[in-house]
Specification:
Strand order of the largest sheet: 3-4-2-5-6-1-7
Helix content: 25-40%
Shape: elongated
CATH class of the largest domain: Alpha Beta
Number of helices: 15
Length: 460
């Protein structure tokens, strides 16, 4: 849609944008990008909640919303609009990443400098134009920092009545770090000891927005009374209680059901805002088809999870996974080895001999010099066979999720064998069951096959 040129219509729109935040958001989108904002019910809900903050009706607000549902866009526009209405307002904008926080600050600054904004709010002029810290000539301030950076030395709001800025937390946690107790608790500690102490007045509002990532994430901690304050909570599940989609243009009901089947644990938290303990809801293996033969042309990799040494140590597991010609995966063999180091090495070698020289053997490399020594020993042991090693990244659940997603949507089958039931049982109870070694081995093999399709693995 072209820019509105009719002077009467334009003045009406400008007046309305000054007075109505949600209209401002849509107006600026049209003016700066040249096409219409795609409206959705949840946009109006978020804007109404933010307006309650602006009017002083809510001082502590948590909005839980799925990723990529316009959360950050709306938050950026709210800061701009508020600054237009109150040019000396002081904001602190923070999230898990300093880079992302700076990106939002720059986006807001560039909008304020743009002609459509100056038409609306001509009194907002910049005194400084930094990236993560800039000021207006009227005393307004924007300061952006990550939870991994420095926030001390700056404050949000002013010691006076009426709206004068806000402390904004946009996604406090990095999704792939939420299962680390140290990092999760570190975010909460940073909020307690640093972030919430940056208020210039006890009436300065705090807005926490983001997807739920766990029961004990920052929103969960706050809602449970962690900082001793009462919080208003807006919960926006992607799949609503009446069975309809929150934003059908983004995800249909069918899309959401498929996402739920593929990764129920992730879906429950990030999309439904109802995180729950991962009690067997990561893998859904019971419906995995069972084959009696491996299709010709299947390419293989065996992933290994090396257990502790000694007769009482955990098992060393090796899962042989194949990528079939139809792009599905087949679990062709699982081996679990208990025993002393020499017995484990012998078992790994026997598995490689049975697999053949075309099947890659992929082993994890433990950190430190001992891990390097162990990998060199296995490389020597498996001389003549395809060999790969790499350090593990993330925790076992994070590594398992891509593999689980394929299992859950029916893209993984298994060869009929005695190991079927123990493997299915471990998957069903993962990650809270007694054993995790077979799953971890499978996760490694899947990661290797799915990301290294260009490698000429052996075929059946």
């Amino acid at each position: 849609m072209p820019r509105i040129e009719d002077p009467v219509k334009r003045q009406r729109a400008i007046y309305r944008a000054r007075e109505e935040f949600y209209f401002y958001t849509r107006w600026m989108f049209l003016e700066r990008k040249g096409f219409l904002w795609q409206r959705a019910d949840h946009h109006e809900i978020v804007c109404a909640a933010l307006m309650r903050v602006f009017r002083g009706e809510c001082r502590r607000l948590i909005i839980n919303i799925p990723p990529r549902y316009s959360k950050t866009e709306l938050m950026r526009r709210f800061i701009e609009w508020s600054l237009g209405k109150v040019p000396d307002a002081e904001f602190i904008y923070t999230c898990y990443s300093g880079t992302l926080a700076t990106e939002s600050s720059v986006n807001i600054r560039n909008t304020v400098l743009d002609l459509p904004y100056r038409e609306l709010f001509p009194d907002v002029l910049l005194e400084t134009e930094g990236q993560d810290h800039w000021k207006t000539t009227r005393g307004g301030v924007i300061y952006a920092a990550g939870f991994d950076g420095t926030i001390t030395g700056f404050g949000a709001g002013k010691m006076r009545e009426g709206f004068a800025g806000a402390l904004v937390v946009d996604d406090a946690h990095k999704p792939n770090e939420i299962r680390s107790d140290v990092k999760r608790k570190g975010v909460i500690t940073t909020f307690q000891e640093t972030v919430e102490n940056r208020l210039n007045s006890r009436d300065t509002p705090i807005i926490v927005m983001g997807q739920r990532l766990g029961e004990e994430d920052l929103p969960g901690w706050l809602l449970a009374g962690g900082n001793g304050e009462r919080w208003e909570s807006i919960v926006l599940p992607a799949l609503r209680e009446d069975g309809t989609a929150l934003w059908p243009a983004k995800h249909t009901v069918e899309d959401l059901r498929l996402m739920e089947r593929a990764s129920p644990y992730k879906f429950a938290g990030q999309y439904q805002q109802r995180p729950s303990p991962a009690e067997g809801n990561i893998f859904r293996p019971d419906a995995m088809p069972v084959f009696d033969a491996v299709p010709f042309g299947t390419r293989f990799c065996r992933g290994w999870d090396l257990g502790a040494s000694g007769e009482d140590g955990a098992a060393t597991a090796g899962l042989k996974l194949g990528l079939m010609p139809d792009r599905r995966y087949i679990i062709a063999d699982v081996r679990r080895i208990f025993g002393k180091p020499d017995e484990v090495e012998s078992g790994v070698l026997h598995a490689a001999q049975a697999d053949g020289r075309g099947c890659e053997q992929s082993l994890p490399q433990d950190p430190g010099q001992a891990g390097k020594v162990q990998v060199r020993a296995y490389a020597k042991l498996l001389a003549g066979y395809k060999f790969h090693s790499s350090p593990e990244s993330g925790d076992k659940v994070t590594r398992a999720e891509p593999f689980a997603a394929q299992v859950n949507v029916g893209n993984v089958v298994m060869l009929r064998a005695a190991w079927n039931d123990p493997l299915v049982s471990e998957m069903r109870h993962f990650p809270n069951g007694k054993y995790k070694d077979q799953v971890d081995a499978g996760s490694r093999a899947f990661a290797r096959l799915s990301s290294k399709g260009r490698i000429a693995f052996g075929t059946a």
